[in-house]
Design brief:
This protein is of the alpha/beta class. The strands form 5 sheets. A 4-stranded parallel beta sheet has the order 3-4-5-10, sandwiched between helices. Strand 3, helix 2 and strand 4 form a beta-alpha-beta unit. Helix 1 crosses helix 2 and helix 2 packs parallel to helix 3. The longest helix is centred in the last third of the chain and has 16 residues.
Length: about 290
């Protein structure tokens, strides 16, 4: 254990129930926000490769039940419990297309089966969360914009439900603190309330980075390049960055229903433009290291 501002904290494996329960009983938290997960899409053979999302969540729910101090728990799932481009009709309208998505379906099922550990609980599904300290995968995207290598595919401005990290943090805080009757047993998406246009978002970064104007290529050219990428990936060149899977992600609009989240959390503090400015400031610090 270590101490930060007088509060003990532990680094332990969520798959180790004994260690997890010991830490919980020692810390005596009142609110638990679950964020521990394996989040990549690399697993190809067995959903149990995502044990942190399955065994770990079961362990956490059981540890919460054994910790009298806990009064609320928020479990983090994923938008990938559904199919990209299709809005679920109900909380349990699942249609995962990856093993990671399947593991998050199991996360939700376990959490509901265990009644969130017997306390006031909610499930949240973050969408793509962007901003300072984001995954290095996205940092590569911004490098491409900076270096003039990113291109728009087609003229349409595809709308997607993204969330700026500053807004996402506020949403988590409000969900953790809202009246019990507003959140108990509910499933909420964590995202900005208004979808962003991917073209407008990328152009915003281009302007803030003072980069070359982003060019546009026809869809058919992008489709040909993606097929070449498919062939190279199949042949073993896994590092080739473009293929049909990624092209489909770019061209598929994805919006979620944030009405419940908005009712619970209220107005968000950051606009897209403010998020872009803060993110570029962070990127410049990263690139200058």
């Amino acid at each position: 254990p270590a101490v930060v501002e007088g509060t003990p904290h532990y680094l332990c494996d969520i798959r180790d129930k004994s260690a997890l329960t010991t830490a919980m009983l020692d810390i005596r938290p009142q609110i638990v926000i679950h964020l521990a997960a394996r989040t990549d899409l690399d697993e190809r053979n067995d959903v149990n490769g995502y044990a942190a999302n399955i065994v770990g969540v079961r362990n956490l729910a059981e540890a919460i039940r054994e910790t009298p101090s806990v009064r609320r728990a928020v479990c983090t799932s994923s938008q990938l419990v559904g199919k990209s481009g299709e809005l679920p009709k109900a909380d349990r309208d699942y249609c995962p297309t990856t093993l990671y998505g399947e593991s998050k379906v199991m996360t939700e099922q376990i959490w509901r089966d265990h009644d969130g550990g017997g306390v006031t609980w909610a499930i949240v599904r973050p969408t793509t969360i962007w901003g300072p300290e984001m995954n290095p995968h996205y940092e590569k995207f911004f490098r491409m914009i900076r270096d003039g290598r990113y291109v728009h595919v087609g003229r349409a401005d595809i709308e997607k439900s993204y969330g700026y990290v500053g807004n996402a943090v506020l949403q988590y805080m409000r969900i953790a603190d809202a009246p019990s009757q507003d959140v108990h047993g509910r499933t909420m998406y964590v995202a900005d309330y208004e979808p962003i246009g991917l073209r407008r978002w990328a152009d915003g970064f281009q302007q803030e980075l003072h980069a070359r104007r982003i060019r546009t290529i026809p869809r058919w050219i992008a489709a040909c390049a993606a097929r070449v990428g498919d062939i190279l990936n199949t042949a073993g060149a896994s590092a080739f960055p473009f293929n049909s899977f990624r092209l489909n992600n770019v061209l598929t609009g994805y919006t979620v229903d944030t009405s419940v989240t908005k009712a619970v959390c209220g107005p968000l503090p950051y606009t897209m433009a403010e998020g872009i400015t803060d993110t570029v400031s962070w990127l410049r610090r990263v690139w200058d290291r």
